[in-house]
What we know:
Chain A has eleven helices and 14 strands. Chain A is of the alpha/beta class. In chain A, helix 3 (102-112) runs parallel beside helix 5 (146-158).
Amino acid sequence: MATIPQAPADAAISAEHLVRRFGNFTAVNDVSFRVEKGEIFGFLGPNGSGKTTVIKMLTGLLPLSGGSARVEGLDVRTDSESVRERIGYMSQNFSLYYDLTVTENLQFYGRVYGLDPARLKRRINEIVQLNGLEPYLNRLAAQLSGGWKQRLALGCAMLHEPTLLFLDEPTAGIDPVARRQLWDLLFELSGHGITFFVTTHYMDEAERCSHVAYIYFGKLIADGTPNSLRELPDVQPQGTLRVEITTPEVTRALRFARHLPGIRSATIFGQSIHALIEDHFNLDDLREQLLKNGIAVAEIRPLAPSLEDVFVELTYKHQAVLEAARA
Amino acid sequence: MPNLFRGFGAVFYKEVLHVRRDPATLFFSLVIPLLQMVVLGFGIDTNIRQVNTVVYNADGRRESRELLDRLKNSDTFHIFRYVDNDQDLNDAIIAGKARVGIKIPVDYSDRLLHNMSAQVLVLIDGSDSSVAGQAINVTTAIGLDESLRRVLPDRSTFAVDMRPKLLFNPDSRSPNFLLPGLTAILLLNVTTFLTAFSIVREKERGTLEQLFVTPVRPMGLLLGKLLPYLAIGFSELCLILSFMRFVFQVPIHGNVLLLAFLSLPYLFVSLSIGILVSSKANTQSEAIQLAFLTFLPSIFFSGYIFPRETMPTFFYVISYFIPASYYINITRGIILRGAGITQLWTDGLALFIIGSVLLIIAARRFQNKVIMA
């Protein structure tokens, strides 16, 4: 018996050839990706590259100009109301009512999702326990610090026990401790099978995701686990080596290194330079050349590319492709 | 079953919490209209009285002084200066010190004594049409009366005796005329602002976007936000009517309950305008400007200040599309003329239709421009 090939039904999100046009401008251009259940999916890209547009399309706020998307197995075009019952959404400005107390905010969002009084009470207790909101229950949301506002907003988005949470820049503008605590919480919840779709500008946060994708001016130019992206041929071309040069004179070293034959690219990282060199280039020769030009070198060692390196390389390559197409 | 009004209860309760948490806003939105009433009710008198008048009496004898006494007694003219040449008479009017200049010629008494026609020159500043109209009417009437008195000493023999009777507002009090119309403007003001603000505030805060990713339906959201402000608008109406009745002593000749009932569609109109404003405006200051834009036609083309019947055809047609036109007819009808449902049902129906159409347009725009933005 012939079996019809079918996409596995258990994806949290499957987006195929998503297109969104605003007039003549194509904000999202043929974007396809899959997010499995329980993943922490990091969605990265510069401002205005289409991240929020993709979230709005997946949550049913924006109609698709083309392509299709299923969220928790439901078609976002025909079933957006059922989709909204299963997902939670936290925007970057923590959409809270500042003139209501913590409890009132939680109660309002619970009622909006149609929780009956008994379940509402139970869920508020659970959320308060989980997020440590206990001491602030009767405080107005306006009086909370950034980190607590974010926890309350996350709590409001989770009351109805969604299986998929969209977090749009959840850590923008909050302190490092609150940032760390939020990620600990995300890992804990992810362990319970909740899927997260997170956008961020922080590369260290991207490194923590189990799956990342990078969107650049409407085009998805990277999609995979952080490790698989590091091994992409475009990031680490055949016959090249990535090295870290530690030196007290980074600016001078950078200017010099960029003109050296055999060095493809070089960038400053704090007290060191990250360079992509051709692997026939001996590391000892490199050190000698630098010393000869009066640049003190502490250490030169091979380096695995960071996600930032990955996205920088992919962006350059994508720009080159675009320019070639225009010429 | 898909519930069109999903989320109504939650939104309604939350909106009530907002109002309770901010009693100052509620207080000012209820009290400022009353202050406006006080200013307009006590400050404006549409009756023209005591118009500044300058007189050049070249005659100066008894007959001429009698004529001037009659003009003074009409309450229309206030003679504030006597001059003794034509130049000064003209100058006083050009300088704006006097609206009316009266010149009695040197032979006035002589001509009357010889049963000849005596002329009196009345110069009127035409730059204010209502003052000018009143001055023409009163001087003509006094001239006519004076002539008749000399021809027919016995008044009872008039062939035609006109007996005008001013209905509904016999003392022609300005508050009686102004305040029922002002009610329409104030209600529009309060409810439009409150609704527009409550939505634009959520836009600014980002909570509106948050609500759109919940299963709340647009109608549930809109009605949940509208009904609390409908209640506030209704309380405002009660306050305005009590103020009008007991502070300004404007008698209400018709049925107050009918007035309350016919106010409901008008309030829905104002709330819908508030939603329309909020679908366009992204900040509270934009909302203020847009709301004022909608108030102006309601003030000028609704018959509140200028009678609709005297408007050029184009504006007269426009006035039919202005909800306040119908509501002012209802308030003046019930309060001043004691009209009932048989006289006013067409106005009520018109408001109901305009309200329904506006609410549907507003909900559509809300869905397209706000949710899908």
